[in-house]
UniProtKB/TrEMBL annotation:
It comes from the Bacteria. This is ABC transporter permease. Its main location: membrane. It comes from Cellulomonas dongxiuzhuiae. Keywords: Antibiotic resistance, Membrane, Transmembrane, Transmembrane helix. Residues 26-225 form the ABC-2 type transporter transmembrane domain.
Length: 265
């Protein structure tokens, strides 16, 4: 008798359990966040309040379709940044402090599905964070989006989320819970102010505008405003965002590897 060779696993068969585990981690992390109501409220509340208190009272903005769309796009960029940094920065650091995290890392599954679950969870909260802005903007401002621009705006959520997800992972895998929370706050708000997310860059002095154009928040803001309004943005926006994405990807990989080596040698 001749031995029969075991059938090779096809790429599709290999991908199915990976995708199943990724969905499981996404569901677990989403439910874990939902069980802390203040985390959900904070994620949804601040961008909407900023719109209500700083934009809605200004008739010159709310009555002008282009200006109100740009204002909502800026705050939408801030909402995505906030969701990604808190989910992956403070959230990852908090998970690492739990005994369950060490147990999960001892399981035979590779870390890819769990990391994919984190990224998908952060992306999901990024979309959820935009809901109050869209509702308030539709009801109280003259902002408008054509179906094509709305589709482009939905795609831009992913483009903006990627670099700030990587930044959040770098912080979360490098620091303790208390340190990560403080660093996220210290990084988020200066980047938001200097990136033109709370006030348009047109009002910046020359020196601040020059610094601002080298920041990932400003690059993301310019691209989102260009997609949603059609107003031409800075020619440096896309190269700057891609450069920051590459740098932050290298930092995130280094942080994950350093954490694995330090805790699981």
């Amino acid at each position: 008798m001749t031995a029969t060779a075991a059938p090779r696993a096809t790429p599709r068969a290999t991908l199915r359990p990976w995708a199943s585990l990724a969905r499981l981690h996404t569901r677990y992390q989403f439910l874990e966040t939902v069980r802390v109501p203040i985390a959900v409220i904070g994620n949804l509340l601040f961008p909407g309040l900023a719109l209500v208190f700083f934009v809605i009272p200004q008739d010159a903005i709310t009555s002008h379709p282009l200006a109100s769309t740009a204002a909502i796009a800026q705050l939408g960029t801030f909402a995505i940044m906030s969701a990604c940094l808190f989910t992956h920065g403070a959230g990852v650091a908090e998970d690492r402090a739990q005994p369950f995290d060490a147990f999960v890392r001892t399981l035979p599954a590779r870390p890819g599905p769990r990391l994919a679950g984190r990224v998908l969870n952060g992306l999901l909260w990024s979309y959820i964070a935009l809901v109050p802005l869209v509702v308030i903007g539709a009801l109280l401002t003259a902002a408008t989006l054509s179906p094509l621009r709305a589709l482009g705006a939905a795609a831009m959520v992913v483009a903006v989320a990627v670099p700030f997800t990587l930044l959040g992972l770098t912080i979360g895998y490098s620091m303790s819970t208390k340190a990560a929370l403080a660093v996220v706050q210290c990084v988020l708000f200066p980047l938001a102010f200097a990136g033109g997310l709370f006030m348009p860059p047109e009002v910046f002095p020359g020196w601040l505008d020059a610094i601002s154009q080298g920041l990932p928040s400003r690059a993301a803001r310019d691209l989102v405003v260009q997609v949603t309004t059609g107003v031409e943005g800075s020619a440096f926006a896309l190269p700057v965002l891609l450069a920051w994405t590459a740098v932050l990807a290298a930092l995130a990989v280094a942080a994950v590897r350093r954490d694995e080596g330090r805790r699981f040698r």
